[in-house]
Amino acid sequence: MSASTLKIALVGNPNCGKTALFNQLTGGRQKVANYAGVTVERKEGRFTAPSGRVLQLLDLPGTYSFEANSPDEQITRDVCAGNYPGEAPPDLIVCVADATNLRLHLRFVLEVKRLGRPVVLALNMMDTARQRGIVIDVPQLQERLGLPVVETIAVKRGGARALIERVDGEVPAAAPAQTDDAASRADLHAQVRELLAATVTMPRATAVIDDALDRWTLHSVFGLMILAVVMFLVFQAVYSIGKPMTDLIGDGFGWMGEHAAALMPAGPLQSLVTDGLFGGIGTVLGFLPEILVLFLFIIVLEESGYLPRAAFLLDRLMLSVGLTGRSFIPLLSSFACAIPGIMGTRSIQDPRDRLATILIAPLMTCSARLPVYALLIGAFIPTRRVLGVFNLQGVVLFALYLAGILGAMAVGWVMKHIRRDKSEHALLMELPSYRLPKVRDVAIGLYERGAIFMKRLTGVILGLTILMWFISTFPSPPAGATGPAIEYSFAGYIGRALQYVFAPIGFNWQISLALIPAFAARETAVAALATVYLVGGEASGLGQALAGQISLASALSLLVWFAYAPQCMSTLAVIRRETDSWRNVAISFGYMFVLAYAASFVVYQVASALA
Ligand SMILES: Nc1nc2c(ncn2[C@@H]2O[C@H](COP(=O)(O)OP(=O)(O)OP(=O)(O)O)[C@@H](O)[C@H]2O)c(=O)[nH]1
Ligand SMILES: [Mg+2]
């Protein structure tokens, strides 16, 4: 390393744009590694400043506060303070703050300043700040803070010019280091308030509207009621808007399957195309509209600024079941898929809170389960109105999501009481301003969800469906066989063996069999059932076949099974990777199996008795 290499560390609250700034400066060239022994990322890059000096840049994990104790935050603090073994202290700390949210970010800036090292403050997201009419008196802020302050727009070409010029110049003098005690921490709050009053002018209109809305949405009683109503309406919409489109697609595929069959000679190939491809894959594809409608609402709620408020609102509730408000976002992501949710738990400081969140994340209903729910609800729940306005199918879907959430809360509560350390960590998060979602952002978000679904469909689900078709078709029945052909196939044998385990909860052999590919990808249960029933030649449509073949009690039991059952292999693999422990995988699989089996058993027995 040449003598003139300057080592710069980028720090800041999560989501302030550190990584965007890092990429802008280094052109994305980087070396990513983990800090020894922990899964905290260390990302390093370099670039040459106009003066010819080489600058080495370190992107550190987002940190709310140095008081917190997540592995990420400890490492960030130690690296900045120059105490991290094997890491030379940075010559300069660039503290990045979101200019649209200085109320939250300035506090951390003050904490960084107290380390007593040279600091430059980058006010990032200046484009959004200007758009929103936020005016920041930079010279005044610079003077009051006693730090150089520059404005940046990390996502715009040349948006970091002021920062480059500043870091290429002389290294600023460090403020004296200060010790951290309770009194000085309380002091930080007062300082932030003072700084804001002197240097930041917020647009009146937004602030007034935000406050007015927040009085309702964050109210401890009305807020929860609003949240419940909003979520309830979303599930209603999934059925009222998505279902007709799903039916249309289903009819379309049925029609295509028939025509394709007419063009082909009878035989295995014809059966693969009609039963496996059009029947199996077509049935799963039909659920795309429902998934898109659900995500349309989730994305709009998120973009509008409502979802972070829901997190804030639920924080107290989460604490009471041994979680933290920080668990909310990972858990919310788990409604799409548990995998990003579990990966998102990295931002939870307390290892026990983090583990608890990881273990219950799969209880949140992931989008892969939606086709299964939609199929069974469509086949078994009448399209009755409840209380005159609500669609009964939508109510059942809402109840299933709720069952997952309540199950998760119950498990969280049990874990809280088992563990010895009962400390709690309250949430510290930013509440963005309300805004009208941009059509483009919503469209991109929807497109991404749709693309993920299609990729799964044409990848793992297609492969598994062909496999299911194969084991359902071969071996062919012996000459003179009387029963349906499928009973002599591999699938028939495997299904009947599994049935010993699942009969007490009301699953026939076809359902038991479908659980296997579902363990690789949930949606495949639908394709597998379609294939098995269509190969068995029992009916034209799958919903119709199911309604004729299994009882309402079995269908309810299966719905409950899918709400609680151990989720797909990929989820378990991610648990293994994120916790580095097979034991946690076993705990996760085991408790969910027991939970699902018990719940399905109760539902099946009660429903059978009442029927
Ligand atoms: N409009 C605007 N968006 C920005 C700016 N800088 C970053 N963003 C966006 O803000 C989001 C977060 O940026 P990141 O760079 O991932 O933030 P980070 O600080 O690295 O976040 P963590 O690593 O999670 O702590 C991304 O969607 C960026 O595209 C900016 O100057 N203006
Ligand atoms: Mg980052």
From TrEMBL:
Chief site of localization: membrane
Location(s) in or outside the cell: Cell inner membrane
CDD domains: FeoB
Annotated Gene3D superfamilies: P-loop containing nucleotide triphosphate hydrolases (3.40.50.300)
InterPro entries assigned to the protein according to its UniProt record, in alphabetical order: Fe2_transport_prot_B_C, FeoB_GTPase, G_FEOB_dom, Gate_dom, GTP-bd, P-loop_NTPase
Membrane-crossing residue ranges in chain numbering: 216-235, 277-301, 355-381, 393-415, 457-476, 488-507, 514-536, 542-564, 585-607
Assigned keywords, A-Z: Cell inner membrane, Cell membrane, GTP-binding, Ion transport, Iron, Iron transport, Membrane, Nucleotide-binding, Transmembrane, Transmembrane helix, Transport
GO molecular function: ferrous iron transmembrane transporter activity; GTP binding
One of the Pfam families matching this protein, by short name: FeoB_N
Protein name, entry field: Fe(2+) transporter FeoB
Organism name: Rhodanobacter fulvus Jip2
Organism lineage: Bacteria, Pseudomonadati, Pseudomonadota, Gammaproteobacteria, Lysobacterales
